Amino acid sequence: MTPRQRRMALVALIVVGVSISTALALRAFRENVTFFQNPTDVSAGKVKPGQRFRLGGMVEKGSLTRTSGTLNVSFSVTDFNHSVPVKYDQVLPDLFREGAGMVAYGRLDASGTFVADEVLAKHDEKYMPPELARSLKAGQAAAAGGAGGGAAASGAVTPSTGGTP
Amino acid sequence: MLVEIGHFAMILALALSATQAFFGLTGAALKRERWMSVATSAVTGQFLFLALGTATLVHAFVVNDFSVKYVANHSNSALPLFYRVAALWGAHEGSLLLWICVLGVWSIAVAWRGAKLPADYLARVLGVLGVVSFGFLLFLLTTSNPFERLLPAAIDGADLNPQLQDFAMAIHPPILYAGYVGMSVSFAFACAAMLEGRRDHLWARWQRPWTVMAWAFLSCGIALGSWWAYYVLGWGGWWAWDPVENASFMPWLAGTALIHSLIVTDKRGLFKSWTLLLSVAVFSLSLLGTFLVRSGVLNSVHSFAADPARGIFILSFLVLMIGGALALYAWRAPSLGSDVGFEMVSRESFILFNNILLAVATAVVFGGTLAPMIADTLGLGTLSVGPPYFNPSFLIPTIPLVALLSVGIHARWRRGQLSLSKQRILGTLAVAVVVALGVVYGIYGSTRLMTPIGAVLGIWIILSSLVDPLLQLRRRIALPVGVIGMTVAHIGVGIFVLGITFVESSTIERDIALARGQSHTIGGYEFRFLGVENMEGPNFDGVRGHVIVTQGNKVVADLFPDKRRYFVQGTVTTKAAIGAQWNRDLLAALGEDLGSNSWSLRLQYRPMIRFVWLGAAIMALGGVLTLFDRRYRTAPVAATASVQTTGEPVQASS
Asked: Which of B46, B115, B198, B643 has the highest CB neighbour number within 10 Å of its CB?
């Protein structure tokens, strides 16, 4: 091969390699992106059973039940309009409690129960995922009352940034 | 009063940074020696005022001056002294101040070490650093002032986020920032070369050690962050592809490409414009990383709206710096051609592959990290991108990257004669395959395809890094320090790859409910839960569990995982207990009290996880070793002579 052909071969190799990896990465992206849904979206049938998504809302007061001797818990998540039953079988995060916000990853089973595989632990009292705060605000507008979604939205900064005393 | 003095010192530092930028850049352009020396003095002055300003704020933290808003928001009188000092960089304003201080330290190091550089080149470097410093100081003083008073003063502070009250987290930000900021030194060297319109490639030799140093800091900083997340967040993972982690990982990936392309530019005068472009990219990613993490934009693009001044300033600063640098590049790059060539299997082309693959890897991380923000801005819905995307996509460029490392390490400069090294390549590969398969199927017994691939690649890198230096030593050829550093760094890569391979494929995690006295066995280790007792700390109380781990009849770990409730913020944190040994970690964390002496527990067995951080540390060590190479000790004048012999035209530097 002449130097020129060699250079062309090198360039072609690089172009092909980069295109293949871009295509594969884009495919992985399309298949693995998870969308955020609130209980109203879920009850409107926006999510197909088996599709993995993020569910956010308030843990409904008085809905938490445990199966003794195991980690199995079930509770309801509400946006003050609709609520979705949730099942989980791992350790719940420190800040999880009834009446507080939560975000979970998981899928809907055939009966419409959300089977969570991860319940998010990263938010403290002052921080709430912004999409959750927004979604709760919308829910509250429909059903007036309930606790601090709006206040949480303004406090939505990095977890390490505390509020004023 | 002291804090006001500090505030005033920062304003003076701002003025001096402007002086440094103006006299550095115009002095070099007009060739006025007096002006250029003003820039050098301005660096020293600025450093002193920065130190004074920071000292007053540290003092406010130490004496619990809660009339300072930042102290009141992020410290507390019950907080131990060490964390009161570390609380300085616990949030946005203080991190910015830390960034600026670190830049001050780097700048003074450049001014001091750079005395050997041509005066106008040094003046330009300091000028560019002055511009960066000016931008950050202006941002600090106008939008994020940590010296602001709180009236009336708070009785006590709101405390530091409990998760940050930890040794690794206290030292992680300064080290990480030393890396970020070091990349702006590297950027300043590249900009100075472009401003001057140098047609030689001596700047690459001058830029190299600073870039490697910054890269080593960045490596350590990221590893510390990962280690912290592992034992403080209590879920046991060492990397979650969290946007905060990615923000520091992107400049590292691009920086790794840069230290390699700088080698080619330094030794062969090739890839000049690519190296310059890469320097700009690494700096841009460092800026982006700083701002992504600290501006709150990661949580929501809408949090910009909460403080529009900050958002607009950050965006304008990014656009000005990156846009300016790219414009400079567009102006100068066309004159940077090189007339030397190289062949397909030469060392140059392997480093080219390294750079392309690292660029693809950076793009993969960049896309996944910024996609949610872009989608949110465009109103395409709220989406999240996690490990299911990052894990497979990141492997696409990195598997060929580490495989080509083992081959390319034998390649020579300029001329491709891999056939001479064929024996070594195939020999090391054969040994690697045998050892790897032995370890994988003999010890860990994994069924995943990636496990043997990762194990072979990891061992292969270590063997092929060692083989050439060892053969040279046997023939009694002294090894340059640079080669030793390179070998050490590449062995670090191999150890890192092995760590990831085994921890990702053979980890066992179990969340389980255990009553006092009950036990559960995972991976041959029996975890026995002995109950919990109350505990008290300086600013927290809580419960401490006791878990004994036995293997066979031998006790291998005595674990005390705890759950703390911090008084001030009322937050509860879970501290996992880890029984570490070189080849495995045993982790236990407390979940919830299930009543009647029963607790939910998180139990994990993680093989070879130490190799991940050890590998990163060894990479950084290798980088630091290369700094002691004789190459950097020779005066620029002597270096010029060697350049001329390679046929590069050297512009007379006045």
From this structure: B46
